[in-house]
Amino acid sequence: MQTMPLNAKPATRVVQLLMCAPSAYDLLYEINAWMHLSDKPDKRQAWKQWEQLYQTLTEQVGIPVALIEQASEAPDMVFTANAGLPLPGKQVVLSRFRHPERQVEEPYFEHWFRQQGYQVHLMPSDCAFEGEGDAFLIDGTIVAGYRKRTDICAHRYLSELTGFPTLSLELVDDRWYHLDTCFLPLGGRLVAYYPDAFDWYARRVIEQHFETIPVTPEEALRFACNSVVADKQVVMPAGCPVLRFYLEERGYTVYEVPMSEFIKSGGACKCLVLYLTEPVNP
Ligand code: ARG
Prior knowledge:
Blueprint: E1 16-19, H1 43-61, E2 65-67, E3 84-87, E4 91-94, H2 100-103, H3 106-115, E5 119-121, E6 135-138, E7 141-146, H4 152-162, E8 166-170, E9 183-185, E10 190-193, H5 200-209, E11 211-214, H6 217-221, E12 228-230, E13 233-237, H7 241-249, E14 253-257, H8 260-263, E15 274-276
Parallel strand pairs: 1-2, 4-5, 7-8, 10-11, 13-14
Antiparallel strand pairs: 1-15, 3-4, 6-7, 9-10, 12-13
Arginine (ARG) binds at residues 31-32, 35, 76, 79, 81-82, 102, 133, 178, 180-181, 265-267, 271.
């Protein structure tokens, strides 16, 4: 395996986001505990919520957003956090989805990254990995979830590829099936997280490595951890006043966006964006 150059600097700043407008967004299967065919998203509402998120990010937070077109046979492609894990030096580790329903997205994301000049790394074929949904690069350390959507073998691959250590965190509750549903890096060593989503040792790992803000069960269920962070600005799903209070107390500017129609599919603000650390063409 080719290893990244040793002088590669860890990603520190999000300079751009990748999003996918919900032109073919739908709920056509059940692959997580949130999805029920009997409770489908209202598509007009979903458009409105997505547009409000897009506008908040571009106009209020002031971060440029690149767009990828949604493939008609990929109703969950709006959740671009699962495209892959972008790495310093325009490299990306492409996702290898757990479920066939989402594997159809892989060629579209691969094509987009290649078109933008990314060097694309592929996971070994038997190793599930769901990109930024399950992995964050925090100051030269990869912090990654496993067991639900990402296999532990993916963590080894990420460390071998980058030379960065990986902190492996076991997810134990089907409702918090991606790391980004229960763990929110806020810059530096500060994170918010929902302790009950993790096994006891993962909680210990988090407490020993980070300064933590615990999220309440009520707000975890409203996807409080699934927020977008750009420096000291946070865009979070509506209805999480406790986390909002803690963030404002620490000097963050907080924006709220209603996310009900995406929560029906098991995602919210952060799932709908992919952090890019190098600018791409819009
Ligand atoms: N319905 C999608 C799935 O189950 C939701 C993905 C949410 N993405 C995320 N990064 N948490 O795969």
